[in-house]
Amino acid sequence: MKNTKRIKKMLEYSPSRISLELKNAVEMCKSNATAKFDETIELAVNLGVDPRHADQIVRGVVSLPHGTGKEVKVLVFATEEKAKEALDAGADYAGFEEYMEKIQGGWTDIDVIIATPDMMGKIGRLGRVLGPRGLMPNPKSGTVTPNVAQAVKEVKACKIDFRT
User: In CATH, what class is 54-163?
Assistant: First the structure.
């Protein structure tokens, strides 16, 4: 494949296969930006963990200051009063029975599911549908909580979870 003039110029400035401090690498990328749009920097990190071992699983939650640019659809499984509280906080859907039936029917047009602790026993039946899609509420990621209003606000403000 033939390199373009732009790529050849960039290759002159960036030595191949060297390690740089993150700050220096970002400064170098910004100084060599030539596109007419906002360019993207992709960062790949090799953690050297084996996800088959329970003691090596990497999991966490992070709040992004400027979001991802994607509108997050939130479903809250809660009783009537908590459901109203969640809807007031910005949840897209809230309730229990009707959404249980919809999900069992195959509906998964949501990004995050938040549940109150008392609903988790009933939601367990949806594990086969929600589990593989990564939608099952989990106390470790903050999606099982009695304070649904705060959880909805955090998720809408772009709180994302990550795992191996």
Answer: alpha beta
